[in-house]
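User: Show me a protein chain along with its predicted structure.
Assistant: Here is one chain, sequence first, then structure tokens.
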Amino acid sequence: MLLLGVFAWTGCDSGGSGMDDSGSTLDQVRYDLEAQSNDGALPEGVGGTVTFWNAGSDQTIVTLELDGGATDANVSHPAHIHKNTASEGGDIAIYLTPVDGSGGGGTSARLVDRPIDELADFDGYVNVHESVENLGNVVSQGNIGANAEGTTGEGLDLVDDPRAVTYDLSANTNDGSIPDGISGQVRFQELTSDRTIVTVSLDPGSEDGSTGANVSHPAHIHENTASEGGDIVEYLSPVDGSDTAAKSSKLVDRSYDSLVSFDGYVNVHESVENLGNVVSQGNIGANADDTDDGGDPSY
């Protein structure tokens, strides 16, 4: 269950003030996303929510949750914060993390290097698309910040001195569109006493930083070592092939200690459609050497 289902919503509205009704800095604000009819694989679209969570003085965790969970589409759904109102339209201002259509509860997360009050004042809107290949098919949309009435709620009970660890992911040769694979890292960052933010970062070595693929790359935590193989135990969020940051995050309902001792490995795949083509892979937890990040508070 994602955090959206854990904290009770309050009845207060935040109409782009960056503050709650008491004048204090926001801890959390949620905006509704409306289903958009389109000519793609999800013609009726899908509703949802986008939520901003205060993660410190200069960072915000932005989560997406689609109504009904995973869409059962054979793609991942990229998402962005755009400038202006939805009716005006505008350029992409911030890449969000795609939502895996095949599983994972229809959720994703992204740590954005902007304070929550700035996002709550932002002149923008959110689009969720059918796929990287079919960006013209918008399946969910909603105004945010200065352009919408958000619903405020309780924030995250963040730990005081978060621990973090990074594991290397090795490029994995395969028979797909990225035959040499892509190296990268997966990072576990302690968030609360029982939740961890897991970030996958890829190092494609391209000029603009993206993988250049016309798909999103789904990722999962599997049980056992990579050489043994094992079932999926946690859906992570896909990496958008057009994202110049080449990263994604997911809020996982497991404590940091349970993950760093877990008998598992991570796979990053070419696409939802071509899961057999693993482009990046690495052992984690009990099966790997790790790099202690020394409590670096950036996710």
